[in-house]
Amino acid sequence: LICFIGFTELTFGSFNLLSGFLIAILAGLGVDAAVTLFHRYVEERKRGRDIYAALEIMLSTAYVSIRITVLTIASAFFLLMISDFKGFSQFGLAGGSGMLILLTTLIFVFPSILILSEKIRPIKIRKTITHIESARGKRFPLYKIFFFIALFFSIFSLITFPKAKFNADFDQLS
């Protein structure tokens, strides 16, 4: 996020309300990617792998899907740049660039942070993953309730969607 703030300041010359919202969005997207990578790393450490082997497996497996996800989101942001509305085009440039900065950080900085944190306070490793193995094959206890809630909201959305009105006149936004 610090790199993104610096990029925004250098590119646009100022930091505005839109940039603030984008920081929250990028933080959420970044946390998702970092948690996925960290979980994969911890999983390999619990399997008995050393720090570097766990990092190698993390980067060769989970990183592939993270890279595709981040590049897809960055592409969606960059598509906003074709808008005639200056706010959307700047938002697209800043968001897409922020996602690419996030990806670069996940490649170079995140593994370094894991190595340093393991040197300071190593992860306590249990060789078995019994809590996961014992849960395999069992159903989520409240799956019926969640299914019917999702079904209700889906039907409600389908009924109310034709009544929704959208204003596509960007001149009224400014």
The helix tally amounts to: 6
Radius of gyration: 21 Å
Q: How far apart are the first and last residues' alpha carbons, in Å?
A: 28 Å
Instruction: Classify the oligomer.
Output: single chain
What percent of residues adopt helix (DSSP H or I)?
A: over 70%
SSE string, helix = H, strand = E? HHHHHH
Question: Please, could you describe this protein's structure?
Answer:
This protein has helices at about 1-10, 15-45, 50-80, 85-120, 130-135, 145-160. It is flat. The longest helix is centred in the middle third of the chain and has 35 residues, at about 85-120. It contains six helices and no strands. α1 (about 1-10) runs antiparallel to α4 (about 85-120), α2 packs parallel to α4 (about 85-120) and α3 (about 50-80) packs antiparallel against α4 (about 85-120). Helices cover about 75% and strands about 0% of the residues. It has about 170 residues and is mostly helical.
Short synopsis of the structure:
The chain has helices spanning 2-12, 17-46, 51-79, 86-120, 130-135, 143-160. It is an all-alpha fold and 174 residues long. The protein is flat, with a radius of gyration of 21 Å.
Primary descriptors:
mainly alpha; 174 residues; single chain; 6 helices; flat
Please give the structural blueprint.
Elements: H1 2-12, H2 17-46, H3 51-79, H4 86-120, H5 130-135, H6 143-160
Helix pairs in contact: 1-4, 2-3, 2-4, 3-4
